[in-house]
Amino acid sequence: MYIHKVLPRSRFCSFDLASITAGPGCMHSFVSRTHLPTLACASMQAQEEVKIEQVSPEQLEPEGLERQWRLVQEKRPLIHCITNFVSMDLMANVLLAAGASPAMVHSLDEIEDFMKLASGLLINMGTLSSDWLASKKLAAKQAVALGKPWVLDPVACGATPVRTRACLDLLSCHPTVIRGNGSEIINLAEAAGCASTQEAAQQRACSGVDSTATSDDALSQAKLLAAQHKCIVAVSGKVDFVTDGVQVVAVHNGVPMLTLVTAAGCSVTALIAAFVAASPHQALLATAHALAAFGVAAEASCSGAPAGPGSLRVGLLDELYRGVSSGACLGAHLQLL
Ligand SMILES: Nc1ncnc2c1ncn2[C@@H]1O[C@H](COP(=O)(O)OP(=O)(O)OP(=O)(O)O)[C@@H](O)[C@H]1O
Ligand SMILES: Cc1ncsc1CCO
């Protein structure tokens, strides 16, 4: 258990969705709903210290997910995203559909001012370049200085030495949460000097952004990484694991076809940033809830047997938009190990 300084949240103008009957997935190609001008309505609140709370089994019941998701919809946290080119569109739409407010801002000149407006930060290491790396480091430092939660997605960590070093640089900036697939978490933990298990060493190789390891393979490394860096670590896969180094929550939602939707992982990491920004004192629980929300939405979108990843991508947005009102949360399956 440890202390993070957080700014509770900023408030934002909302815009009327009442007239929209179909989900945003259907509107996807017609309307961009990222409304940067609404950011001008943000107001900052006083800084306060918040404890990261332990998770109890009752909080993992479907009602707990519903409560946490409603909180996201009420607070509508602004998430400052510095992400890769591939994920920008899906990530922004996932955040909007689930009830948060995305802003993709990466210019070094703008980082400091923008972080003052945001409730949380997402940093993704995909399509890495040196000028963006400078922005990422500055944003992470600024988030910590302002006491705002920030989430690291170490895309393809271990694929090249440059990428691994960049991930380590960001790791030293104290992320609140790290979310990666099995290979990424194993490679990051090893690079950070966490003792390796034999199974983890065997699974270390990765073939780019896709994982060659399961989430089970990475669990012991995830716990070591979380304990060593006093953060929450989430490993995604068939079962998602979320740990603070002591407690482990398993999330049993999702569909295998998500691995064929590029940037699904990047987008769920942004959703984690939104859930944690809405409940910063419950980063472990909020991370598990974000993964469950994404998973139940994917399951709901597959209930009519989608033809393939294209319709899953659209259906996912629609189900995230239907969110708590669809009853999908009842299918949430979270477990304290
Ligand atoms: N076999 C599976 N069954 C069910 N859900 C899965 C499976 N594999 C991944 N998922 C889900 O897909 C989402 C993305 O996880 P994944 O591990 O594929 O991320 P990633 O490799 O980082 O993705 P990307 O690089 O495309 O952003 C998570 O919500 C996870 O729960
Ligand atoms: C395909 C791809 N390449 C760099 S980032 C990214 C998105 C999935 O991580």
TrEMBL record:
Q: In which pathway does it act?
A: Cofactor biosynthesis; thiamine diphosphate biosynthesis; 4-methyl-5-(2-phosphoethyl)-thiazole from 5-(2-hydroxyethyl)-4-methylthiazole: step 1/1
Q: Does the keyword Phosphoprotein apply?
A: no
Q: What EC number(s) would the UniProt record show?
A: 2.7.1.50
State the Pfam families in the record: HK (PF02110)
Show the catalytic activity: 5-(2-hydroxyethyl)-4-methylthiazole + ATP = 4-methyl-5-(2-phosphooxyethyl)-thiazole + ADP + H(+)
Q: Which cofactor does it need?
A: Mg(2+)
Keywords assigned by UniProt?
Answer: ATP-binding, Kinase, Magnesium, Metal-binding, Nucleotide-binding, Thiamine biosynthesis, Transferase
Q: Which InterPro entries match?
A: Hyethyz_kinase, Ribokinase-like
Protein name from the UniProt record:
hydroxyethylthiazole kinase
What is the species listed in this Swiss-Prot or TrEMBL entry? Dunaliella salina
From which lineage does this chain's organism come? Eukaryota, Viridiplantae, Chlorophyta, core chlorophytes, Chlorophyceae
